[in-house]
Design brief:
The chain is mainly beta. It has a single domain (2-178), classed as UDP N-Acetylglucosamine Acyltransferase, domain 1. It contains 1 helix and 20 strands. The strands form 2 sheets. Strands 1, 2, 4, 6, 8, 9, 11, 12, 14, 15, 17 and 18 form a 12-stranded parallel β-sheet that branches. A hairpin with a 2-residue loop joins strand 19 (140-144) and strand 20 (147-152). The longest helix is centred in the C-terminal third of the chain and has 24 residues, at 155-178. InterPro entries: Hexapep (IPR001451), LbH_gamma_CA-like (IPR047324), Transf_Hexapept/Carb_Anhydrase (IPR050484), Trimer_LpxA-like_sf (IPR011004). This is Gamma carbonic anhydrase family protein. Pfam families: Hexapep (PF00132).
């Protein structure tokens, strides 16, 4: 696991309990991973010019890229990347300097850009583009490029947001048990 974690300017990722890090993933710098997080093959996360936080029971799937925006005179805080709890980040997603609430599903190949805010209980369709600074309201499905609010989430979809997270926690526990 140590080869996956790399320091940047003396700052080393902070890893919670029962975390699964695939050996092909890379976590660099100021990154905090909550408990029961899973990071799958070929995920790259660079907390070099700002910080990344991934909340408990969240999962980041294969080939996703996580990055941040540096602090500067126009934007003194820059844009860190904050991912809430029980979040499912689909395959090949790009998250850049955005905030993702709890119980969110980001579909495969979606891109979420600087300053975007995804509230709790949201689904973002595969291949969608969330422009810089866009806010996605809780309780809706969003699709398209640029993303548009499609409709309210159905009760079964709301329940699936938690179920998806639970399924990934169970799967990562199987991977950890296999050693």
């Amino acid at each position: 696991m140590q080869s996956v974690l790399r320091s940047y300017k003396g700052i080393f990722p902070n890893v919670g309990e029962r975390v699964y890090l695939d050996p092909t993933s890379v976590m660099v710098g100021d990154i905090t991973l909550g408990n029961d997080v899973s990071i799958w093959p070929l995920v790259a996360a660079r907390g070099d010019v700002n910080h990344i936080i991934i909340g408990d029971r969240s999962n980041v799937q294969d080939g996703s890229v996580l990055h941040v925006t540096h602090k500067n005179t126009d934007n003194p805080d820059g844009y860190p990347l904050i991912i809430g709890k029980d979040v499912t980040i689909g395959h090949k997603v790009m998250l850049h300097g955005c905030t993702v609430g709890d119980r969110v599903l980001v579909g495969m190949g979606a891109i979420v850009l600087d300053g975007a805010i995804i509230e709790d209980d949201v689904m973002i369709g595969a291949g969608s583009l969330v422009p810089p600074g866009k806010r996605l309201e809780s309780g809706f499905l969003y699709v398209g490029s640029p993303v548009k609010q499609a409709r309210p989430l159905k009760e079964a979809e709301r329940a699936f947001l938690q179920k998806s997270s639970d399924n990934y926690v169970a799967t990562k526990n199987d991977y950890i048990a296999e050693g």
